[in-house]
Amino acid sequence: MYDVKHLSKMKDLETHAPEAMKAFVAFDRAAVADGAIPGKYKELIAIAVACTTQCPYCIEIHSNNARKLGTSDREIAEAVLVAAALRAGGAITHGTHALKGI
Fold this sequence. Notes:
- Helices cover 72% and strands 0% of the residues.
- It is mainly alpha-helical.
- The protein folds into 2 domains: 7-35; 37-102, AhpD-like (Up-down Bundle).
């Protein structure tokens, strides 16, 4: 199912919903642009979020963007492990709900 070639179909979304796609693209660009948080760190955040949402497209896109901004493999690895820790932590804390009534 995952194939980076599918991203070319985003043009079809723009064809059928041009205003919504324009708004999305503008929002997406603004969200990762330099601001109070530099773009490099925003891309690391995006990688971590993409790992938790398990979006291979986002992982690839934001990893490439992060590297273009000078991010090292070590920084990416640490972002991935932060994401893994948070996801595992969520499973543990949600698991406490299974213990109700004990």
